[in-house]
Amino acid sequence: MSVPVRLAARIERWPTAGAFVISRGAKTEVDVVVATVAEGEWRGRGEATAIYYHGETAESVRDQILDMTGAIADGVSRTDLLTLMPRGAARNAIDCALWELDAKRCGIPVWRLAQLEEPKPVVTAFTISLGDPDRMEADAKATAGKYSLLKLKLAGEGDVDRVAAVRRGAPEARLVVDANEAWTGRDIVAEAEALMPYGVELIEQPVKAGEDHLLDGLVSPIPLCADESCQDRADLERCIGRYQAVNVKLDKAGGLTEALALCRDARAAGMKQMVGCMLSTSLGVAPAFLAAQGAEWVDLDGPLLLARDRPDGFRYERGRMINAPATLWG
């Protein structure tokens, strides 16, 4: 007689390390939702963070997870979830929990179960929150010797001054910038050209999602990356030709299963990948660590932006993300 699979979900609150500021506002704490699937002695966990610009909340994500209790008990698979649930944080939590549960059943790490190569340390970006140029320069200076890749949050007006200030603070660092949709209505090519002297490698989401047609025919000297404009594979076609890269986040895509497929399809379309995350603990970024193995840019600093992490979390050494020992993910 088979043992039924049980599903549970809880909300956890984690304080940030100071205020995390982007163009849409500041956060001093983050609520994550942890889904647990259990079968006998085995447990699988998945962590998700609500996508606020989709109207998700931690409570709505938890409730959406619990609505799947019956389906999980009936033994639905990760593939089944792609049609039973919409993309988003709730599906991510369940999908990742099922990956971990299946790995425990098989007695192998998740990367082997997913038929991936054994993961290696990756260099992750460290985020410089939005602020005035002096503050961002000081924050960049504080990263000296710690991080070789910085990601700057921008806001539209005054962005060149912000990037110049960060370059003064971190003259050796690689730079990528995230406009967070704030360049809608601006001359995208001119904005990008103005950033060329500072060695910016990538510009994330210059225009509002849904207004991607504004990029038609533009030739930016710096590659453009779709974030809010590309949630999962369903969005990829309209991004091809407008963006040169896509930011893959498991909370957007709805789990590791879809994220791996999105990376594969984006690569086949000639698009580069950044693998990113929401504010989260190491449990949240562990599956993304696998998806990030083939990415050109990695932005998995979620745990670094918290006041504390889980005790079995990742190690970060001079910007290199090193998997915690003896985990199923690496």
UniProtKB/TrEMBL annotation:
Residues annotated as the enzyme's active site: 153, 249
Alphabetical list of InterPro entries matching this protein: DgoD-like, Dipeptide_epimerase, Enolase-like_C_sf, Enolase-like_N, Enolase_C-like, Mandelate_racemase_C, Mandelate_racemase_N_dom
SUPFAM superfamilies hit by this protein: Enolase C-terminal domain-like, Enolase N-terminal domain-like
Cofactor(s) the protein needs: Mg(2+)
Cofactor: how bound: Binds 1 Mg(2+) ion per subunit.
SMART domains linked to this entry: MR_MLE
Domain Mandelate racemase/muconate lactonizing enzyme C-terminal, first and last residues per copy: 133-225
Example GO molecular function: metal ion binding
Residues that hold Mg(2+) according to the record: 178, 204, 227
Keywords: Isomerase, Magnesium, Metal-binding
EC top class named in words: isomerase
UniProt key word Cell membrane: no
Family of the protein in this entry: Belongs to the mandelate racemase/muconate lactonizing enzyme family.
Identification of the protein by name: Dipeptide epimerase
Native source organism of the sequence: Sphingomonas chungangi
